[in-house]
Design a protein that fits this description.
single chain, alpha+beta, 3-stranded antiparallel sheet, 10 strands
Length: about 400
């Protein structure tokens, strides 16, 4: 069985496709857009189990070398493999290598560590909102694209502060990130190779002139302590840019859209801004940026949700389905900014739980609080049905989000 993955309706709203699947069972045999056959997990309990299962490996390169990838690819499919120059990052590793790389990055991304960036993040948000208001004032109908003017620029500038990446690098990095996260499997490897080449040049320059930033710290770990290889260094920066940009752009866009479509929930946040951190967790549950977790493969046969996963078979956890499982969350298709979302899987689970979660939470809190405070009359400028979505099964994101900042 396969989902209508390339169907425009599915890309806009995949959840109706998930409901009948959950009624039929927690695990289903499906085919991804690339043609890869996988076991898709749609229930909360089984998703949580799969994300931390000791017999599921993230070392996809090994699965390719063992021939599993070719074996599980449908005839005529287009394999989507990461280029080796950027693929050796923690998301593609199991312990102990995963643990080694994660420790290097975690030092800078603890909740306490990212709080030092709070003044800079608030300044970034305020400056972007100033520019966005000016752009709206110049628009004939007073509307402005929130994605183009705010949600896409915000994480770029925050990542620049964290990683020490200067402005001239980001146009090409963002362009390649967008291409990589699309469903263009045929060109994915070439785009990743181009990304890696650009990062290698950037790192060479930064090695000569280090700063107080994460990339400089990683270079120092490479040069002085030999805790990571050159390829691991480039791959780690690649992961930080791609994950840090994509998730934040879509988290903020989804949250704003959800609020503008639920005025009673928006009113609750305006009346009590202290609800914003909890509301952001609900946005991650209700409509997170990631449709599915990255792939895992079985190192040995095991049982999951009543089916046998064979050795070398791939598992894809559908996060959007798991986070709307009525067995875990009451009234899962309702947005409730006062809901307790403890245990949602928006940031994953297990050893691969998102290392950047503290920064993502802080970014979203500041971005949303300042936006709602600055523009109390914020509203959609077009009907929700006219919004367009990116063609990607991996990441769900809006192409544009036209809004009006003030009443006409």
């Amino acid at each position: 069985m396969s989902l209508p993955l390339m169907d425009e309706e599915f890309l806009t709203n995949p959840y109706p496709a998930y409901e009948p699947l959950q009624e039929q069972g927690p695990v289903h045999r499906m085919v991804l857009p690339s043609g890869l056959k996988v076991w898709a997990v749609v229930s909360y309990e089984e998703s949580r189990e799969a994300l931390a299962h000791p017999l599921l490996s993230k070392d996809i390169e090994t699965s390719v070398q063992l021939g599993y990838f070719d074996r599980e690819m449908s005839e005529g499919g287009t394999p989507r493999l990461e280029d080796s120059s950027v693929g050796q990052h923690m998301l593609n590793m199991d312990p102990p290598d995963h643990t080694r790389l994660r420790k290097l990055v975690t030092k800078a991304l603890t909740a306490r560590g990212v709080r030092r960036l709070e003044p800079a993040i608030e300044e970034i948000s305020g400056t972007l909102l100033d520019a966005m208001e000016q752009r709206a004032a110049e628009s004939p109908d007073g509307s402005v694209d929130l994605v183009a003017e705010y949600t896409s620029k915000f994480p770029v500038q925050v990542l620049g502060k964290l990683l020490g990446i200067t402005d001239e690098h980001f146009p090409v990095l963002v362009s390649l990130t967008t291409a990589i996260m699309s469903d263009d499997d045929e060109n994915a490897g070439a785009n990743m190779a181009a990304f890696g080449k650009h990062l290698a040049g950037m790192i060479q320059v930064k090695r000569a002139a280090p700063g107080d930033d994460l990339v400089s710290a990683l270079i120092q770990a490479r040069d002085e302590d030999a805790k990571l290889s050159d390829v691991e260094l480039i791959s780690t920066v690649f992961l930080m840019v791609v994950a840090g940009y994509e998730t934040t752009v879509n988290m903020i866009g989804h949250g704003v859209r959800a609020l503008l479509n639920h005025p009673e929930q928006l009113a609750a946040l305006r009346a009590d801004p202290s609800l914003i951190p909890g509301a952001n967790e609900e946005f991650l549950r209700y409509e997170g940026p990631g449709n599915r977790a990255t792939l895992r493969f079985a190192t040995e046969p095991f049982e999951l949700g009543g089916v046998t996963i064979g050795a070398g078979e791939y598992v894809s956890v559908l996060l959007g389905a798991a986070n709307r499982d009525g067995g875990q969350f009451a009234c899962p298709y309702q947005l409730d900014v006062r809901r307790s979302t403890t245990g949602h899987l928006g940031f994953g689970h297990g050893v691969h739980y998102c290392v950047g979660a503290p920064l993502a939470r802080l970014e979203m809190e500041i971005a949303l609080r300042q936006l709602l405070t600055r523009f109390p009359d914020l509203a959609l400028a077009v009907p929700d049905s006219e919004l367009t979505w990116r063609k990607s099964f991996m990441m769900q994101g809006l192409v544009r989000l036209p809004v009006r900042l003030h009443k006409p």
